[in-house]
Design goal:
3 copies of one chain form a homotrimer.
Chain A lengths: L1 E5 L2 E7 L4 H12 L3 E19 L4 E7 L3 E13 L2 E11 L5 E22 L4 E5 L4 E5 L2 E2 L3
Antiparallel strand pairs in A: 1-2, 2-7, 3-4, 3-5, 3-7, 5-6, 6-7, 8-9
Chain lengths: 145, 145, 145
């Protein structure tokens, strides 16, 4: 992977063969980034994504292993058990241009992935929500109903 | 809903059972935000979305009421009749990871929705375009053809 | 097209009948923007998009010419042969709300397209990668493996 830091953002190029969630997680660790948000476009050749089944409190993932365009990637990084944790959803298209996607477990770059990453100077943390079964954002301000 | 303000942005957590367009609209009203832009990921369990039919100058909406991953949410807030007005499009995936979506009328959070909101210090307004049949952005600068 | 400059960002309205890649490219040229990133939502009535076939080092595009919602647009601008070059992927939905998309060759606005554009003060350039067959981002910093 390669990157550049500009105007408080990072442009990141994740290269063919590299794992995306792992690479972004390691990048945050190396750059001492605790929180951030990112988008991305590119193509992957291996992908595991799916959905959360609230009743069973578990994810159901499907594996894909052909070349797939990454048409939308939206993610955030906050702390989970004191480490930067990546939460990312994606939309993908196949060779018929049909779209699919979901919550991304992991994916491997097939051509290239171009990411715009905006670090945030906070230390927001995920905390387990027992009812939901997931570690949710723990934020200081309460909105009105 | 909960939120945090960091580096001129807001991280917002919209919680299970809350309506998204209503919550973002009320958030802007409460925080005295006139303009802004946002992205989001999460899951909803009720959704009304669709498309605009230009010839008839009306939206056609479809209702969905199962658990749906929100894989991409892209929206903006500008003034319409002096109040913050949310315009948001979304991509969603079902339990087969198939993607669908459109212009969002409203949706209800099913698990959680994580939003990154960037306020803008302008007071851009939507003005009705008679030919299009919609209130479009009224912007001060004209681009070259 | 119309635009406004706010807080270091641009809000751009691309109008019915205008080509999107051409308009963003000309906008960057006119505003002397070398690098940037953008998102967008709206509707188009003509679209050419597809995917990159790595083995053959070529894009396969499909043409669409009905009204299509633009539900997610994610793009960047960097230099290619000394000129601002737009790389943009999109997700679209049809009148059944089904999603499709890919790498965008060009598209024409059918109703309106609302773009949030963030200029970057860098001069990052694309350089041909012989193995990939595409001009990829050339970035100064190398990440750890």
């Amino acid at each position: 992977m390669q990157f550049a830091q500009i105007d408080g953002k990072y442009i990141i190029k994740i290269e063919r063969g590299e794992l995306v969630v792992e690479t972004v997680t390691n990048f945050c660790r190396d750059q001492k980034i605790l929180n951030g948000t990112f988008t991305g476009i590119g193509a992957v050749d291996r992908l595991t994504c799916g959905y959360y089944e609230l009743k069973e409190k578990k994810y159901y993932f499907t594996d894909y292993d052909s070349m797939i365009e990454v048409v939308s990637l939206t993610g955030n990084v906050v702390l989970k058990e004191d480490k930067p944790f990546v939460h990312v959803h994606g939309v993908f298209t196949d060779t018929k241009n049909q779209a699919f996607g979901g919550h991304i477990d992991e994916m491997r770059v097939g051509v290239v992935l171009e990411v715009i990453f905006t670090p945030l100077s906070s230390n927001i943390t995920r905390v387990l929500d027992e009812d939901i079964g997931l570690a949710l954002l723990d934020l200081p301000c309460q909105g009105h109903k």
